Amino acid sequence: MLGKPVSHSRSPVLHNAGYRAAGLTHWRYTSFECGEEDLKGLVEGLGQEWAGLSLTMPLKEEALRVAALVDPFAQAIGAANTLVRRAYGWHAYNTDAPGMVRALLEAGVSRTRRLALLGGGGTARAAIAAAASLGADVTVYTRRPEAAEELRPVAEALNVDLAGEPWDRAHEAATAPVVISTVPKGAADHLATADWSGRPVVFDAVYDPWPTPLAAAAQAAGCAIVSGLDLLLWQAVDQFELFTGVAAPVGEMRAALYAAG
User: Fold this and answer.
1) d(Cα 69, Cα 109) in Å, to the nearest integer?
2) pLDDT tens-digit profile, the chain (261 residues)
3) Where in the numbering of this chain does the Alanine dehydrogenase/pyridine nucleotide transhydrogenase NAD(H)-binding domain appear (predicted)?
């Protein structure tokens, strides 16, 4: 795991539990602090024993530039959270978006016409890609008016209809069938007072602290809740399989993740 900071990450717990359960006794997953300016040199200096890398902020865009080949899905999103060593060099993937889809599938969402998105940062890009997989139009509520426009190229590349709304109307997100919050902790706390009686599926990408006021209020109203831990699990499952070529032991990985909390 590379990023800055990474000391808080539960990814080593997830992956190492998977290696143990799968009998991959010689595999090990660790983490290093790395900034954008250091990524290229670090990747070029890795020995052949390195099968892959997980990347978190602020490296997800820089990963596209250091890769020999970029998966079309990651290219459309404009961010990669995974580098896998291939014979031709490093191949960049994005497992955040399929991780979101798998987390929503567990919550009973396989298709939806409309999705409300809170926030316009890097995770929001993955949410738009998840919306494409679910067949949904997206209404995005952002704190910066220009953030919605910054997401538009992603939406266009993925054939998603995108509408932007100001942050002071974010309470209207509660009327959508699916709500994904990608804003930092605390930013959506005021939405605990929104009207959640329509019982949308609410996906809050924050997992520390948990539950957030938003998630707690929505759950109390009867909404199905998806947490950032669910996303962390499913994006790691796809990474595990890309790195190893082995089916991920999802149950053991999930148990280790929740035990670590």
Assistant:
1) 32
2) 999 888 888 999 999 999 999 999 999 999 989 999 999 999 999 999 999 999 998 899 999 999 999 999 999 999 999 999 999 999 999 999 999 999 999 999 999 999 999 999 889 999 999 999 999 999 999 999 899 999 999 999 999 999 999 999 999 999 999 999 999 999 999 999 999 999 999 999 998 889 999 999 999 999 999 999 999 999 999 999 999 999 999 999 999 999 986
3) 100-193
Q: Can you list the pairs that 39-48 forms with residues at least 24 positions away whose Cβ atoms lie under 8 Å?
A: 39/2, 39/63, 39/66, 40/65, 40/66, 42/2, 43/83, 43/90, 48/85
End-to-end CA distance of the chain: 19
Phi and psi torsions of 43, nearest 5°: -65, -45
Catalytic residue numbers read 60
Torsion (CA) 219, 220, 221, 227 in degrees, nearest 10: -10
* DSSP secondary structure, 173-197, as one string: GGGSSEEEE-SPTTTTGGGGGS--T
Q: Number of C-alpha atoms within 13 angstroms, CB side, residue 119?
A: 21
Residue with tokens 């999705």, as numbered in its chain: 115
Question: How far apart are alpha carbons 256 and 238 in whole angstroms?
Answer: 17
If one counts every other C-beta atom within 10 angstroms of the C-beta of residue 67, the result is 22
**Phi and psi at residue 58, to the nearest 5°:** -105, 35
